[in-house]
Amino acid sequence: MPYVNIKVTGGREAPSAEQKAELIAGVTDLLARVLNKNPETTVVVIDEVDMDNWGIGGKSVTERRKQS
């Protein structure tokens, strides 16, 4: 049973419900096509991480965007 965890920043730039559905379907299809995995047992989880909890280069995404 494949398990895929996708993490994205939440807030204003969070993916829409339609985009999440496309990600889930696309990843499931990719695993079936490339690795011959059963789509019925493939699990895809999308976690939205608050930008204050996502750091790049020693600063949160929130802080980095304020500086841009």
TrEMBL record:
Keywords: Isomerase. The active site is at P2. It holds the Pfam family Tautomerase. SUPFAM superfamilies: Tautomerase/MIF. It comes from the Bacteria. GO terms for molecular function: isomerase activity. Residues 2-64 form the 4-oxalocrotonate tautomerase-like domain. Its EC number is 5.3.2.-. Gene3D superfamilies: Macrophage Migration Inhibitory Factor. InterPro entries: 4-OT, 4-OT-like_dom, Tautomerase/MIF_sf. NCBIfam families: taut. Belongs to the 4-oxalocrotonate tautomerase family. PANTHER family: 2-HYDROXYMUCONATE TAUTOMERASE, TAUTOMERASE-RELATED. This is Tautomerase.
